[in-house]
Design goal:
Blueprint lengths: L1 E5 L4 H12 L3 E6 L7 H12 L4 E5 L5 H10 L4 E4 L6 H6 L1 H22 L3 E7 L23 H20 L3 E6 L2 E2 L8 H11 L2 E4 L6 E2 L2 E2 H12 L23 E6 L5 E2 H12 L4 E4 L15 H7 L7 H15 L1
Parallel strand pairs: 1-2, 1-4, 2-3, 4-5, 5-6, 6-11, 7-10, 8-13
Antiparallel strand pairs: 9-12
Helix pairs in contact: 1-2, 1-8, 3-5, 5-6, 7-9, 9-11
């Protein structure tokens, strides 16, 4: 299979590329290598990939419409996995235009490429952030998500709507994955685990929002990638039971599907920090802060659909995953 991965120098994208290449797929990775976080880390992830057979890299921004059109014309992709996006809830408050460009204009270019390129399956990253003001836990894909609390979340919800319209108009099979908090080796420096590790090692206070009263569905990177690969292999199908009088948000009368992809085992933030302290052999200095704008106190994924339909079952606990991250962090830095 020939797969395009956008955001291939990113955390999930690079790990997914390894997994697909190891099973014999061809991967064309694209990334604009922007400086939202350390570009050297992105280059280091790419260096590990470029030694592998079947991997091709193009430095390209998904916002570049002519560039994207040309890439689709030159390649015959069986599937596309769109992970390129402007990430981060907090940054969307400071720089909303970056989210409109990358997450909406860029995704529009990908959908057009899939449409004209005869791509069999377009898989794209959505986010647990789309649940916004919802309070019923665990979050279900079948619930309405019309009340986002950040522009980042709104842009991801927009991606789901855009994909559905392409599934309807062009019969393009589209699957959206609502990622919950992903962590592990080669992760993103703007994520909590990175910041906490760096702060604890340096003996500096670590920022703990909502005074630590947070719950997150922390999911280890290898578990996430296993789920993504299984989804790529199973293009979305129409739901013959879908009813417009009682619309189901997760399925449709067209080839369209939304899945939560998480651990289905939410952990208290303070327990996460405890495991990190144990892994580092050092206590954290906590800077207990109020809730930040655009954030939510709890995320919890109902992943029954993913388990039932593709056999997805996360296996790595935070007690196993956090030490693996610490081992990588110490080795890399």
């Amino acid at each position: 299979m020939r797969v395009m991965i956008t955001g291939a120098a990113g955390f999930i994208g690079s790990t997914l590329a390894h997994r697909l290449l190891d099973r014999g797929d061809e991967v064309v990775g694209i990334d604009n290598l922007n400086d939202y976080y350390d570009v050297n880390l992105k280059k280091a992830r790419l260096k590990r990939l470029q030694d592998k057979n079947g991997f091709t890299f193009e430095q390209l921004d998904i916002v570049d419409r002519p560039g994207m059109a040309k890439l689709f014309e030159q390649n015959k992709f069986d599937a596309v996995m769109n992970l390129a996006a402007q990430a981060g809830v907090r940054y969307s408050i400071e720089n909303p235009a970056a989210y409109v460009d990358a997450n909406m204009v860029g995704f529009g270019n990908i959908l057009e490429g899939c449409r004209h390129g005869g791509v069999k399956h377009c898989v794209f990253a959505s986010s647990s952030s789309v649940y916004g003001a919802n309070t019923k836990l665990p979050f279900s894909e079948h619930d309405n998500v019309d009340h986002p609390v950040s522009l980042y979340a709104a842009s991801k919800k927009a991606n789901e709507l855009m994909a559905h319209s392409y599934a309807h108009l062009y019969n393009l099979s589209c699957t959206g994955l609502r990622f919950f908090t992903v962590y592990g080796p080669w992760g993103r420096p703007d994520m909590a685990l990175f910041k906490f590790t760096k702060g604890i090692i340096a003996g500096e206070p670590i920022p703990v929002f909502n005074k630590g009263q947070m719950i997150r569905d922390f999911t280890y990177i290898d578990d996430i990638v296993e789920g993504v690969v299984r989804v790529i292999d199973k293009p979305a199908q129409p739901n013959p039971k879908w009813n417009g009088d009682h619309p189901d948000s997760a399925t449709s009368y067209v080839p369209y599907r939304i899945y939560n992809i998480g651990n289905n085992n939410p952990i208290k933030l303070m327990r996460y920090i405890e495991v990190l302290e144990e892994s580092l052999g050092k206590k954290a200095i906590l800077d207990l802060l109020p809730m930040q704008d655009g954030d939510v106190p709890a995320t919890s994924a109902n992943t029954h659909d993913l388990q039932n339909e593709i056999g997805y079952k996360p296996e790595v606990t935070v007690e196993e995953g956090v030490p693996r991250f610490v081992e990588w962090y110490k080795e890399y830095y």
